[in-house]
Amino acid sequence: MKILVCISNVPDTTTKVTFTDNNTKFNTAGVQFIINPYDELALTRALEITEKQGGTVTAINVGLADAEPSIRKTLAIGANDAVRINAEPQDAYFVAEQIAAYAKSEQFDLILTGRESIDYNGGLVGGLLAEMLGIPSVNVITSIEIENGVATMERDIDGGKEKVSCKLPLVASAQKELTEPRIPNMRGIMAARTKPLKVVEVTGDLKTSATVGFELPAAKGGVKLIPADQAELLIDLLHNEAKVI
Amino acid sequence: MILVYAESIDGNFKKSTFEAVSFAAGIAQTNGVHCVAVSIGHVEDAKLAELANYGADKVVAVNSSKLAAFNAEAYAKAFANVAAAEGATIVVVSNTYSGKAVAGRVAAKLKAGIASGVISIPNTSNGFVVRKTVFSGKAFADVNLTTAIKVLAITPNTFDTHTFGKTANLTTADGGLSDADFISNSVEISRVTGKIPLTEAELVVSAGRGMKGPEHWGIIEELAQVLGAATACSKPVSDMHWRPHSEHVGQTGITIKPNLYIAIGISGAIQHLAGVSSSKVIVAINKDPEAPFFKAADYGIVADAFDVLPKILEAAKKLKAAN
Ligand SMILES: Cc1cc2nc3c(=O)[nH]c(=O)nc-3n(C[C@H](O)[C@H](O)[C@H](O)COP(=O)(O)OP(=O)(O)OC[C@H]3O[C@@H](n4cnc5c(N)ncnc54)[C@H](O)[C@@H]3O)c2cc1C
Ligand SMILES: Cc1cc2nc3c(=O)[nH]c(=O)nc-3n(C[C@H](O)[C@H](O)[C@H](O)COP(=O)(O)OP(=O)(O)OC[C@H]3O[C@@H](n4cnc5c(N)ncnc54)[C@H](O)[C@@H]3O)c2cc1C
């Protein structure tokens, strides 16, 4: 079993988001970057699968050298090797294209991505990548088991769950619940230093989008406090003033 | 020509589908072109005709027994084939789980630039720029799609539906599918019945660790039921299994955008706010006057939730009884 796990390097969830250069660039000053939380789940589940039935787990990132701490961490958690495609990840289409180009030469049985990156919230790389490779895709999976070359998964659907089975190879995108993330131990961190991290150059350069600017949401006008002993007024205000109920 | 994916569940269209059709029809009208809606799977003609009311000039239904259950590869192929046949330049889907599953594949097939989580109509004064939420709602990005064909996945509960009152022009297409297009199989579908799914809810009652334990959720559920709201919770609450994971909202849970979000006993951590701050009206109920949620709220009550919730529930019941 050869598994590829796609890793996005994203700002820590506590980041206070600000922008520079006349609101055209995300301000990375003082920002801590982490493995996208959903990708961490995908990685852990991939390790659980290969530990049980044999195989290898490769982590792949499309990013510049500054993403390497997160990539190293995937090796410390347990990935066998890692690949970094040396480019600024412009958008989901570009990222998918780069990963597809690499995956085509390697014949993976299973490719896992996160449900979405917590920075650009695309939720798109999995589907784009699967289509570029001509294989099926199943998004927002909360479980996956592999037996005799067939994956059985549960996925979230609006208002419920769906059980899906699919012959490998396929691309599946991890949702919370898939598993619990693993924390690297000392041995893993030591081992990571000698595991291979291959840097690959970009193929093709199809531009499909460009981010032209950012904006922060307008600040709220201030909270209207309702005295605790007149809490029932809330319903009246929501009905007559805010008109939402 | 603007093509819109008319997503259906068990043969029914959801409100988010009508929003997508109206959004697409609005753009079509501005550009003096047609709006075509594509329905995949079994939907009765009377329901397909409703799409015309919301703005579709033409409805293309693709149906076969194999399309009864959702399948990303097959649905995307059928949809892209219709897009090519109709000469679509803009493709619109609703930003739901299944909508996004189709949208990515369609974009790759059509070599189209794609933006998801879209919250504005395109601004074409200088390119083709749409606004989308990023950082789970902590900010917005303006994205210029530079390809000939563009795919937009629009955020539910953001755009109003409009009635255009057009007459339905119903047609069918076979989607150009063969058996080889059905590799993944839907084995079983289970939906929570009698409850409003969080992702579609216009009103949400949410509670956090301040509720002390799962045994105290009775009043939260009752308030939600009386208001016709869905229930949600903070991350620790679902991590401790007080509530199901599907209720967890925030940066690592679901991002929601209801008209009303009532947060009870939730502190308002940055990761929680990220997923709910685009709600139109926010109410915070917390016994700590310094709780960060009050900075993000429109209405606030500084009180012990256990004291004020019964009064609020009573008032809600009275209002519902009177209306
Ligand atoms: C400094 C900087 C600036 C950036 N500016 C932009 C920008 O302006 N516009 C923009 O769209 N993006 C930008 N990105 C890239 C962004 O971080 C994403 O990697 C990329 O855009 C895909 O985002 P998405 O939300 O569409 O991905 P999604 O479709 O939400 O990602 C789903 C999954 O795909 C995989 N994936 C996503 N990105 C990568 C990756 N880079 N490498 C490997 N796997 C990945 C992960 O498994 C992830 O869980 C920037 C990144 C950096 C570091
Ligand atoms: C990587 C990462 C991702 C995260 N993602 C998310 C996410 O997606 N969603 C999320 O919610 N959190 C997330 N968190 C956790 C977040 O940081 C907070 O810890 C969490 O939101 C706190 O939940 P809470 O407000 O329910 O609990 P607490 O912080 O314990 O707050 C409880 C609140 O209840 C109030 N209270 C107590 N008793 C009463 C009473 N009787 N009446 C009224 N009020 C009362 C208290 O004053 C307090 O404000 C994430 C954290 C990390 C590190």
Summarize this structure as a short list of keywords or feature phrases:
heterodimer, A: 245 residues, alpha/beta, Rossmann fold, two-stranded antiparallel sheet, 6 helices, B: 323 residues, seven-stranded parallel sheet, five-stranded parallel sheet, 9 helices, elongated, binds flavin-adenine dinucleotide
Give an overview in words.
The complex is a heterodimer of chains A (245) and B (323). Chain A is an alpha/beta fold and 245 residues long. Chain A has one domain: HUPs (Rossmann fold). Chain A is 27% helix and 32% strand. In chain A, strands 11-10-9-12-8-1-6-7-13 form a 9-stranded mixed β-sheet, sandwiched between helices. A two-stranded antiparallel ribbon of chain A has the order 2-5. A two-stranded antiparallel sheet of chain A has the order 3-4. In chain A, strand 9 and strand 10 form a beta hairpin. The mean pLDDT of chain A is 96. Chain B is α/β, with parallel strands linked by helices and 323 residues long. Helices cover 31% and strands 26% of the residues of chain B. Chains A and B meet through helix 3, helix 4, strand 9, strand 10 and strand 11 of A and helix 3, helix 4, strand 7, strand 8 and strand 9 of B. Strand 15 of chain A pairs parallel with strand 17 of chain B. Bound molecules: flavin-adenine dinucleotide (2 copies). The site of one flavin-adenine dinucleotide has 25 residues of chain B, from helix 6, helix 7 and helix 9.
